[in-house]
Amino acid sequence: MSTADPQQVLQKQLAAATALRWVRSGMRLGLGTGSTAAAFITLLGQAVRAGELRVEAVATSLASETLAREVGIPLLPPRRGLRLDLTIDGADELDDRLQLIKGGGGALLREKVVAAASDYLLIIADSSKHVAQLGRFPLPLEVVPFALPWVLDAVAKLGGAPELRLATANPAEPARSDQGNLLVDCHFGELPNPPELARQLEQIPGIVEHGLFLDLARAAVVAQADTARVLRP
Ligand code: 5RP
After folding, report:
1. Residue 51 burial class via C-beta count within 10 angstroms: exposed 0-12, middle 13-18, buried 19 and up
2. Cα(64) to centroid of ligand 1, in Å?
3. Which function does this protein serve (predicted)?
4. From the centroid of its chain, how far is CA 120?
5. Alpha-carbon dihedral sign for residues 127, 132, 135, 136
6. Cβ(117)–Cβ(149) under 8 Å?
7. What is the pLDDT of residue 108?
8. What is the 3-state secondary structure (H, E, C) of 111-133?
9. pTM (2 d.p.)
10. Residue 5, marked binder
């Protein structure tokens, strides 16, 4: 992820600012993970502190939770019966039908849980994320540590060239999700049939979640140089 690219940073900011238009006072929100979601959380915090918006939110990662607290967004713990009005999250890839690859930031499990608990999932992204066909970005999996060798075998058999993700801070150690699970990035190449691949991955014991988010997003804000386009499936 080249967040250092100034154009990309501006586009992420524009997508995040545009997404504020979806937010109304009184809403319960899901807060995504990653640099684009972080830009949104920061802007939302400014509006909350200024008294322009009154919201409560569930965060999809410890990092987003910490940021939300810092910028003054009241947080809700998960509980039975809780529905979220709107979740705003980033993506690693999205196509015209708003099928997504997510999990580059390792938060795919909580992101999918929160998306499923939401009435509306809005994706915010810079233009590099919008692709004709999913698959250039390696598909992330969250995997129970005990099951890792067998999951690697099963994914290789499906043609996914699995790669254990290493911790950025200490590449001698594997990366861990907020749940303490391992992350595996799978190089399938272009995905002609994402629903079929999702079905196959869901049958492999030990895969807690995969990064294919299908039929979940209701809209996406994709920012280009100085315009933000809204896509709907
Ligand atoms: C985290 C994600 C992120 O939404 C995805 O990686 C996009 O990140 P960024 O906004 O930093 O490009 O799925 O698990």
Report:
1. exposed
2. 11
3. Catalyzes the reversible conversion of ribose-5-phosphate to ribulose 5-phosphate.
4. 14
5. negative
6. no
7. 98
8. HHHHHHCECCEEEEEEHHHECCC
9. 0.96
10. no
